[in-house]
Amino acid sequence: MTKIIFSFVSNFEKAKKLLSNHLPLPTAIVGLGKSGLSAYHLLTALGISKDQIFYFDDKAQNAEIPSYEACQKLNIKSLIVSPGYPLSKAWIKTALQNNIQVTSEINLASFFLENEHTIGITGSVGKSTTAALIYQTLKALDPNAFLGGNFGTPLADYALNIINQAPRAKYLVIELSSYQLENSSLLPLTSAVITALSPNHLERYPDLESYYAAKWNMLSQLNGPLILNTQGQDLKRYAESKNISSHISVLWANQKEHFDFDFSKCLLKGKHNYDNLALALTLIKNLNLPLKSLSEAILQLSTFSGLPHRMENLGTSDPAHVTFINDSKATTMESVLSAVHGLDIPPDAKLHLLLGGKDKNLPWHKLNELSNIKNIYFYFFGEVAPTACLQSQLSGPIYKTLNLALKELPLLLRSNDIVLLSPGGTSLDEFKSFEDRGLFFKNWVEQLKSPKTII
After folding, report:
1. What architecture does CATH give domain 22-103?
2. For residue range 97-108, what is the model confidence (pLDDT) as tens digits?
3. 455 exposed, middle or buried (CB, 10 Å; 0-12, 13-18, 19+)?
């Protein structure tokens, strides 16, 4: 791999000039989600006339239907393609063959970066948690630190803030999906993290190798250390099959190297999250921070309670000291098993596992292995409850709704118990979304804070 020398933009006017050379007009934004709309706001803030910006979307009203014929009709010179729209579409390939520039919102935003330390994070699983962990630690050192990309806030929003004279961040933490990495080659990375490689998104890629290659493509943007997870499923095998440029130092993160850090005392629950903590620790320890700043950053790792609805530690009730964990996003059997096996259940306590939701023909029989855990109690709720109970062959009461299950649960809790909402099923029988279900559970927990509620 050839070493990349990145020219950081030193001033706003130079950024505009570089961008204008990169983006011939008129242009069309393909896909009007967060990324596309953020690109539009950035371009208009730069003074680009609205009649030079078109929309290509097959769902939005008043938008052109994406096609090469539409490009010809409108004399389109460039396309800003959103991550959810595959570059493998035949009409985009035709556009490229006819010298139409294809770029992305991330590429456009990259022209406005100067000397920010930009950290790219990708992986098949764990990338959002790892990104949030790293962001929380760096936010304590840099109040202007930015977290975005696939995490939810487009990088173009950061560029727009810079245009509006907001202070620059010292650290940018950018979560990058494989979709984004197909079309973000102009984003310079000073550090990179890969959490894991495992099969995913095979509806978009012709084979597993193509999917892994899209993730690995991040290295072409990197001019600094690459941090890899030793427990990252196919990651170690894949990395060892690749030639990595000599200018990239490869660091393998594992828990044993951080003997001075007590993983068990972190608020973040789940042994699988120890890998995410080890990745964050390895990155932070390689930022050359002053000792005081390093200590502060590591303290922040310990206090991170998890992303909402993903093994989110909701704290404990006093004085009974019952721990509540919101894993509402768990809608597969693998997620449920990972959640349960990742917990340390005190020998004198019980784990109360809430299972259920809407049926989507899941293999509930896989949960039968949990019957080997002696101190676990099962509660089935929602549309799928009878099916889940029958197929898993796990014993437990059946409730029509989560609400009904939670009304009875307080009478069954004792000191040091753990209550885990890791439902397995989707939320759409009783709630609008997994977030809505998780918020309902969190509100219930808040109402249990009275010492009289739990025996």
Report:
1. 3-Layer(aba) Sandwich (3.40)
2. 999 999 999 999
3. exposed
